[in-house]
């Protein structure tokens, strides 16, 4: 591994902020099996995996997959176990959280932003803002579909924070649509999930969307 490549255990630790199960990456990801599969793919498409430019590609891809799918090795719910009393009873919104994930249909990336908000419960307890970004990463770094990603983030927040309401909006471009198939670069997919008060109150939902859109 070159000096420029991240140590994957540290990547996982940064991803979930203390929610890992302590096992080294090599024990949870079969890197050699991925390498062998990548070699077979290269041969199948007519390439020579032993030429200079590709000789180390299977190893690089294996380690990249281990990093990109690090969310499979963590429990996202543990990201939100820490909360503290703030006496806040209005919307808390984190906008423009970068999303990098892989479509499970073609294993091609989709990327964009997530906007994540909630209204604290009656106890006024809140979680750290960085925890919301880590939660997005924990679900994004796995084979995904955007619709499920959006719902998983919202459901975990609702279950772990016991808030009055949750709203999640995800806006992404999918390379499986941009570089293949219909080939429509720039087309974006927007998904949303609302829980609790945001589901019941049009006014609350409109307020949150106004904050997200910057109106």
Structural write-up:
Belongs to the GTP cyclohydrolase I family. Keywords: GTP-binding, Hydrolase, Metal-binding, Nucleotide-binding, One-carbon metabolism, Zinc. One of its GO terms (cellular component) is cytoplasm. This is GTP cyclohydrolase 1. It catalyses: GTP + H2O = 7,8-dihydroneopterin 3'-triphosphate + formate + H(+). The longest helix is centred in the C-terminal third of the chain and has 16 residues, at 146-161. The N and C termini lie far apart (47 Å). Helices cover 40% and strands 23% of the residues. It has 2 domains: 5-73, GTP cyclohydrolase I, N-terminal domain (GTP Cyclohydrolase I, Chain A, domain 1), CATH 1.10.286; 82-213, GTP Cyclohydrolase I, domain 2, CATH 3.30.1130.10. Strands 5-2-3-6-7 form a 5-stranded mixed β-sheet. The protein has a two-stranded antiparallel sheet with strand order 1-4. With 215 residues, the protein is α+β, with helices and mostly antiparallel strands. Residues 1-8 and 16-21 have low confidence and may be disordered. The protein has helices spanning 8-16, 25-28, 31-44, 57-68, 129-140, 146-161, 175-178, 197-200, 202-213; strands at residues 83-85, 92-103, 109-119, 125-127, 143-144, 165-174, 189-196.
Question: Strand fraction band?
Answer: 15-25%
The CATH homologous superfamily of the largest domain is called GTP cyclohydrolase I, C-terminal domain/NADPH-dependent 7-cyano-7-deazaguanine reductase, N-terminal domain
CATH topology of the largest domain: GTP Cyclohydrolase I, domain 2
> Which whole number gives the mean pLDDT?
90
| Share of residues in helices | 40-55%
Identify the overall geometry: elongated
SSE series: HHHHEEEEHEHEHEHH
Distance between the termini: 47 Å
Report the C-alpha radius of gyration, rounded.
Answer: 20 Å
Low-confidence stretches: 1-8, 16-21
CATH architecture of the largest domain: 2-Layer Sandwich
Q: Regarding CATH, which class of the largest domain? A: Alpha Beta
Sheet having the most strands: 5 strands, mixed
Structural class: alpha+beta
Trace the largest sheet across and list its strands: 5-2-3-6-7
Catalytic activity: GTP + H2O = 7,8-dihydroneopterin 3'-triphosphate + formate + H(+)
GO molecular function: GTP binding; GTP cyclohydrolase I activity; zinc ion binding
Keywords: GTP-binding, Hydrolase, Metal-binding, Nucleotide-binding, One-carbon metabolism, Zinc
Family: Belongs to the GTP cyclohydrolase I family.
């Amino acid at each position: 591994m070159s000096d420029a490549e991240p140590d994957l255990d540290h990547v996982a630790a940064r991803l979930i902020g203390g929610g890992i199960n302590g096992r080294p990456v090599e024990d949870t990801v079969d890197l050699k099996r991925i390498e062998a599969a990548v070699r077979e793919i290269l041969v199948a498409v007519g390439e020579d995996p032993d030429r200079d430019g590709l000789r180390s590609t299977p190893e690089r891809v294996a380690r990249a997959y281990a990093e990109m799918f690090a969310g499979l090795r963590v429990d996202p719910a543990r990201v939100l176990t820490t909360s503290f009393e703030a006496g806040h009873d209005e919307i808390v919104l984190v906008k423009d959280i970068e999303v990098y994930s892989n479509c499970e249909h073609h294993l091609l990336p989709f990327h964009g932003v997530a906007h994540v908000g909630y209204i604290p419960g009656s106890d006024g307890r809140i979680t750290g803002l960085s925890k919301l970004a880590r939660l997005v990463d924990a679900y994004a770094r796995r084979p995904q579909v955007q619709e499920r990603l959006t719902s998983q983030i919202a459901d975990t927040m609702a279950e772990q924070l016991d808030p009055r309401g949750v709203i999640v909006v995800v806006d992404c471009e999918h390379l499986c649509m941009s570089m293949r198939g219909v080939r429509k670069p720039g087309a974006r997919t927007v998904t949303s999930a609302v829980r609790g008060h945001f589901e019941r109150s049009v006014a609350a939902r409109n307020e949150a969307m106004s904050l997200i859109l910057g109106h």
